Amino acid sequence: MRVPKDYTGYIFGKWTVLKRDIDRKKHWFCKCSCGNIVSVSIDHLKRGTSTKCQKCKGRQHSKAIMTHGESKTRLYYVWLAMRNRCNRPGVKGYENYGGRGIKVCEEWLHSYENFRNWSLANGYALGLQIDRINNDGDYSPDNCRWVTHLKNMQNTSRNKKVMFEGKLVTRTELAMRFNLSPRLIGDRLRHGWTVEEAISYQPCIGSNQTLRGNNHG
What's the alpha-carbon Rg for the chain, to the nearest Å? Predict the structure, then answer.
């Protein structure tokens, strides 16, 4: 039988691991630098999604608001929404960001001021949206830019271009032409379908639309 690793004494962010929580699987009692003791999932510790207790997070957030005084500005809302969709599973859109492994870089994650300063130095203006140059990359200074709504839509995963009939076309264009959803086409391509296969079969209710056996023949 495999013996679980002993994480006693390990440090993750502001957490120091004290002992295993025998009542909760894969949880360990940890002491925050503020003195608060909480049972935390070891997976969250190892992934870096838990680095401090909720009290410290609240104090840090309040301090940030008090420091910059911009909590009601559009740029602050953009920063907050960016963090939420990457770190809060319950918010709308999380599955397309944090659920896919997209993160906010450390430089921006805990500092609105850093994000604001980068934005103002890199073309931010009312009406523009933040865009990741590499749609599979993180939110970071070297992978972000400010663009119009139209340009941002062109960089979404559903508008990635594929080769069809000798030309580069977007998944949305294919979807409209063959009466399918861009997401279904993208899912099929990620499961190894060719472009021709992905657009040739209409979905069947009650079956997995990314398995060829459910649509072929």
Answer: 22
pTM for this one? 0.46
pLDDT of residue 178: 86
State the number of CA atoms in the 13 A half-sphere of 112 facing the CB. 22
Amino acid letter for position 192: G
Pairing, β 15-20 against β 11-12: antiparallel
Report the alpha-carbon distance of residue 4 to residue 182 in Å, rounded.
44
Question: Exposure pattern of 55-90 as b/e (b: 16+ CB <10 Å)?
Answer: ebeeeeeeebeeeeebeeeebbebbeebbbbbeeee
Q: Count CB neighbours of 7 within 10 A.
A: 17
Q: How far apart are CA 15 and CA 51, in angstroms?
A: 6
| Paired residues of 16 in beta bridges | 11, 31
CA-CA distance, 26 to 80, in Å (whole number)? 30
Q: What is the mean pLDDT of each run of 10 residues along the chain (217 residues)?
A: 75 91 92 91 87 78 60 89 91 86 92 92 89 88 84 58 82 83 82 87 59 47
CA distance 181 to 200: 13
